[in-house]
Structure formats: C-alpha cells, structure tokens
Design goal:
Number of strands: 10
CATH architecture of the largest domain: Orthogonal Bundle
Radius of gyration: 20 Å
CATH class of the largest domain: Mainly Alpha
CATH topology of the largest domain: Multidrug-efflux Transporter Regulator, Chain: A, Domain 2
Shape: elongated
Number of domains: 2
Largest sheet: 3 strands, antiparallel
Order of helices and strands: EEHEHHEEHEEEEE
Distance between the termini: 46 Å
Strand content: 25-35%
C-alpha cells in the first residue's frame, strides 16, 4: 500500500476500471451473492473474498455461512475506499509513485491533434504528460 502526500493510504488492489465503475450505478438496494455481484460489475468472484472482504466491504453472513452484500452499501463503500484523485492545475499523476506530483521544467509537444506538457517525476524520474489542448481535425 502506498502513501499519499497527506499520509492517507492509496489502496490499489481491487480498484475498478471505468466501465466497472459505471456498472456500479446499476446495483440495486438488495442482497447479492459474491458471484452475482462479480457478474453484475465484471470482476471475478474470488476478488470479493481476496480483496474486498479483508478491506472491510460491508457484508452479512447467513446461518449457513454464505456471504450477502447489499448493492447500494457496496457502491458507497467502493467510492469511499477508492476515492478519485483530484489534481491541481500544476500537477500530473505519476503511475510509478501513484501520486499527484508538481510539473517541473515542462516543455510542450504536439502530436496527433493533442498539445501536452512533458515533465519528469521528481521522485522516480518517470516521464509524465498532461494534455493541455485538443485540436480538431477538419
């Protein structure tokens, strides 16, 4: 687990991709089994047991020991556990450090109808880009 600049942990295991996040909105206020939830959102059933349960996903066990997860509670828990990273105007996101870092000594490049700033991460020296303009092709 990595730590952000404000000392809050970044949880990477179990992070959902864009289409999976969109499918979260379709979850109903009802109990799902891990298999049903996994099929509905688009991940494996094992992810519920290996990642979400240890991280504190809200669930209930019935008298036979089966897990039931409320769809609305799961959606709210995902949004709390995996918050969106908001960047300042002078920051870009480093995929190696998993942090928003300040853009230092940037230079502009234009390629494929996009203008973007190129800089390097001050921690790991990874090349970073931030799109600044989109040009329409006629």
């Amino acid at each position: 687990m990595d730590i952000t600049a404000n000392n809050s942990p970044i949880v990477l295991r179990g992070r959902l991709k864009g289409p999976q996040l969109a499918r979260l909105q379709g979850l109903l206020n009802m109990a799902y089994t891990p298999a049903e939830l996994a099929k509905e959102i688009g991940f494996t059933r094992r992810q519920v047991y290996r990642v979400y349960e240890p991280l504190g996903c809200p669930f209930e066990r019935d008298e036979t020991g089966h897990i039931w997860i409320n769809g609305v509670a799961f959606r709210e828990w995902i949004h709390r556990t995996y918050p969106k990273t908001n960047l300042a105007e002078n920051e870009t996101f480093c995929l190696t450090c998993k942090l928003g870092v300040e853009i230092i000594n940037p230079y502009k490049e234009t390629k494929g109808g996009l203008t973007y700033l190129v800089s390097f991460c001050p921690h790991c020296r990874r090349k970073l880009t931030r799109i600044t303009e989109k040009h329409r092709r006629i």
